[in-house]
Specification:
By secondary structure, this protein is of the alpha+beta class. Helix content is 15%, strand content 45%. The protein is built from eleven helices and 30 strands. A hairpin with a 4-residue loop joins strand 18 and strand 19.
C-alpha cells in the first residue's frame, strides 16, 4: 500500500503476478452555474399533428385528376363467446377444427366463422367530369350467389377515409384524429420514433379530450419532413354511443405513389356487435382490404372509353363468380388463414344438410316475403292473412313473375277475400325495365281493394297480419277504428334517369274512393263553408304528376328489378307537381 498523501499523477505498477493497490486522491473543485430558466414550450406532438392537418390535402388521392388500383376485399362474420352447450350441438361435430384452432385475428378466443366473402376489383376515379367505376372481376361469397350482395361487398360501398374530417362508420360520423377540429377533440403525445420502410417516422398517441363523443383512441406513425400518415391504429372509445356495437377497431397503412400523394395499401376493420341475449353468442364482423397496381393520372382517352363501356358505378363481370381455385391463388393479395380455408367448405357442407336447407329456405322467405318456384314468385307472405274492421279476417294470395321468367318484364297479380263483407278484391301490375343504367322504365297497375283513408298507399303496401291487425289508432287513451275506403285505382308512369343523378317521373292516376262503414265524405266549398252530404257516395280524382329529383353521387345496391338506395352524402332535391283535372275519366275536381 502506498502510504501518505501522494499527489503526483504518476504511479508505479508492479509486474504480475503480485497484487498491488493504488489509491488516487482527487481534489474537489466548485463551479457556479449561471441562471437556468425552464419555460413551457409547444408539445412536439401538437407541432407534428398541425403539419399533418395542414398538408393532408396534398397527400389525399382525391386531389389527383384520376387514379386507379386493384382492390382486394375480404369480409368475414363470426360468432364468439361460444358456450360449451352451443359447441356441443350435433351439427358442429364434423367441424371441431373451428373450436380447436384460433385464428390470428380472433382476439385469442375461439370463434365460429359462418360467412366469408372475397372480391377482387379494378377501381377507377376521375375528377372532371366526376365519375368512378368499379369492375368486380372475381367474387366468392360463401354459400350465396346473388348479384346485389356481390356488388355491395365490393370496394366502393365499404371504404373509409381518415383524411376526411369525419369518418363514416356504422352510419355514424366519427371525428378523424387528423380532422380540422382534431385539436379541439383530441390530446396528442409523442412517444417514439423509428425507421419504417425507409421513412423516419414519429409515433403519436391520441386520446379524446372529453367522454361521450364519437371519437377514437390509438396511435399513428407520421413520416418526417413530408408529414404524411404512414400507419394508424385506433379503436372506438368505450363511451361512444353506437347502436348495437360493443367495440370497433381500425388499422390503415399508406404508401407514397406520385405527386406527394399517399395511397391506402392495407386496411383492417373489426366490429364486435352487442349480443342479443346474455347467453347467446356474440357477433364479430371483420373487413380486410389491400390495394396495389396504382395508376395515377391515367390517359383521358382510356378513361373515356372505360366509362362509356361500363355504364354503372359497380359492374360484376360475367365470369366473376366462376373463378376456380387456381385463379384465386394467383390473384388473391394475401393467403387465407387455416380457418378461412375451411370456411367455404364448412358453409357449403352445412347448406347441403336437409335441416339447414329447410331453415335457410324459411329464413329467406320470411326475410324477402317471397318464395320463388321457377318462373313464378309467390308472395308477399306477410299479407296472406290480415284483419280489419270492415272485412273481418282477410285472405290474400299474390303471384308475380320471377327473374327466370324475364329480367326486363315483370307481371304480378293478387286476389283477396274478406269473410265479413264477402267480397273479392283484386289487383295487377306491369313493369317494363327498358334500360337498367341509366334507368328507363314504364309501369302500370290496377286495383280494386280497400284501404285506410288517411294513407292508403302505405296500408296497401304493408297489408299484413302485424301491420293491419285491428286497423285502429290511439286517441286520448282510447282505441278508435280507422276509417276505411274502397279504392278503384289505375296508375301509369314513365321513369327516366340520367347519369349525373337527375331523374324525371311522369305519371297519371285515376282513383275513386268510396267510404265504407259508418262515415261519409265531407268537404269545403269555401274556406268558411263546410258541408256534409250523405249523397256523396264516392269521389274520383284524375291527376297528372311530374316529379324531378336530383341526388348527386347516390349509391344503389341493385337486383334485376328493384334496387335499394344507400343515400348520398350530399343533399337530395325533390320537386313534384300534381295537376287534377275534372271530367277526365269522371274526375270530380280541378286542382294544383
Amino acid at each position: 500500500d502506498l502510504k501518505g498523501v501522494i499527489r503526483d499523477s504518476a504511479r508505479k505498477i508492479n509486474a504480475a503476478p503480485k497484487e498491488q493497490t493504488v489509491n488516487f486522491i482527487l481534489d474537489r473543485s466548485d463551479y457556479s452555474l449561471q441562471e437556468v430558466v425552464i419555460v413551457p414550450g409547444e408539445n412536439p406532438a401538437i407541432r407534428i399533428i398541425k403539419e399533418v392537418i395542414a398538408r393532408k390535402h396534398s397527400h389525399n388521392k382525391k386531389k389527383l385528376d384520376s387514379y386507379g388500383y386493384e382492390a382486394y376485399n375480404k369480409i368475414e362474420i363470426d360468432l364468439d363467446d361460444l358456450s360449451d352447450k352451443f359447441k356441443g350441438r350435433k351439427i358442429f361435430k364434423p367441424f371441431k377444427f373451428v373450436f380447436n384452432n384460433i385464428d390470428s385475428v380472433s382476439e385469442a378466443k375461439p370463434f365460429l366463422p359462418f360467412f366469408l366473402s372475397e372480391t377482387v376489383s379494378d377501381f377507377h376515379y376521375r375528377k372532371t367530369p366526376l365519375d368512378r367505376r368499379e369492375i368486380i372481376k372475381a367474387s366468392k361469397v360463401s354459400g350465396i350467389n346473388d348479384v346485389s350482395i356481390s356488388q355491395f361487398l365490393g370496394n366502393m360501398y365499404i371504404e373509409s377515409d381518415i383524411y376526411a374530417d369525419w369518418i363514416e362508420l356504422m352510419q355514424r360520423q366519427f371525428i378523424s384524429p387528423i380532422s380540422q377540429v382534431g385539436m379541439v377533440s383530441y390530446r396528442y403525445y409523442l412517444v417514439d420514433s423509428q425507421f419504417i420502410d425507409n421513412f423516419w417516422c414519429y409515433k403519436i398517441q391520441f386520446f379524446p379530450k372529453s367522454k361521450g363523443g364519437l371519437t377514437f383512441e390509438g396511435d399513428m406513425w407520421v413520416a418526417d419532413s413530408v408529414y404524411a400518415v404512414k400507419e394508424i391504429s385506433m379503436k372506438m372509445t368505450k363511451d361512444a354511443d353506437v347502436n348495437f356495437v360493443r367495440n370497433m377497431s381500425m388499422y390503415n397503412q399508406f404508401v407514397p405513389v406520385k405527386d406527394s400523394v399517399w395511397m391506402l395499401k392495407k386496411e383492417k376493420l373489426i366490429i364486435n356487435f352487442i349480443k342479443p341475449q346474455q347467453k347467446s353468442p356474440g357477433i364479430i364482423g371483420r373487413k380486410t382490404a389491400s390495394y396495389k397496381n396504382f395508376e395515377v393520372n391515367e390517359p383521358a382517352h382510356t378513361l373515356d372509353s372505360l366509362f362509356k363501356k361500363e355504364k354503372t358505378d359497380v359492374t360484376l363481370s360475367d365470369s366473376a363468380g366462376l373463378r376456380d381455385a387456381a385463379y384465386w391463388n394467383k390473384i388473391r393479395h394475401d393467403t387465407l388463414s387455416f380457418n378461412e380455408q375451411k370456411v367455404y367448405g364448412m358453409i357449403d357442407t352445412l347448406r347441403n344438410l336437409p335441416v339447414v336447407k329447410t331453415y335457410l329456405d324459411v329464413i329467406q322467405t320470411l326475410y324477402l316475403g317471397y318464395k320463388d318456384w321457377g318462373p313464378v314468385s309467390i308472395g308477399n307472405v306477410f299479407s296472406f292473412v290480415s284483419f280489419n274492421s270492415y272485412e273481418g279476417w282477410r285472405l290474400k294470395y299474390g303471384m308475380s313473375t320471377s327473374n327466370k321468367f324475364s329480367k326486363n318484364v315483370m307481371l304480378g297479380a293478387y286476389a283477396a277475400y274478406g269473410f265479413r263483407d264477402r267480397k273479392i278484391k283484386y289487383g295487377g301490375e306491369f313493369l317494363w325495365l327498358i334500360k337498367k343504367s341509366p334507368r328507363l322504365s314504364i309501369a302500370a297497375s290496377y286495383r280494386n281493394d280497400i284501404s285506410a283513408v288517411s294513407n292508403y298507399n302505405v296500408f296497401y303496401a304493408n297489408g299484413g297480419l302485424l301491420a293491419n291487425f285491428g286497423v285502429r289508432r290511439v286517441e286520448e287513451g282510447k282505441y278508435i277504428q280507422l276509417k276505411l275506403v274502397g279504392v278503384q285505382e289505375f296508375k301509369a308512369e314513365l321513369y327516366k334517369e340520367w347519369k349525373l343523378g337527375y331523374s324525371f317521373r311522369a305519371g297519371f292516376v285515376n282513383r275513386t274512393l268510396t267510404p265504407l262503414g259508418i262515415f261519409n265524405f265531407s268537404y269545403h266549398t269555401t274556406a268558411s263553408d263546410f258541408r256534409k252530404n250523405t249523397d256523396i257516395t264516392s269521389a274520383t280524382i284524375s291527376e297528372f304528376t311530374f316529379t324531378q329529383r336530383f341526388a348527386w353521387q347516390e349509391k344503389f345496391v341493385s337486383g334485376e328489378f328493384n334496387r335499394l338506395s344507400l343515400g348520398s352524402k350530399y343533399p337530395i332535391v325533390f320537386l313534384q307537381y300534381g295537376l287534377g283535372r275534372k271530367r277526365i275519366l269522371n274526375g270530380d275536381f280541378n286542382y294544383h
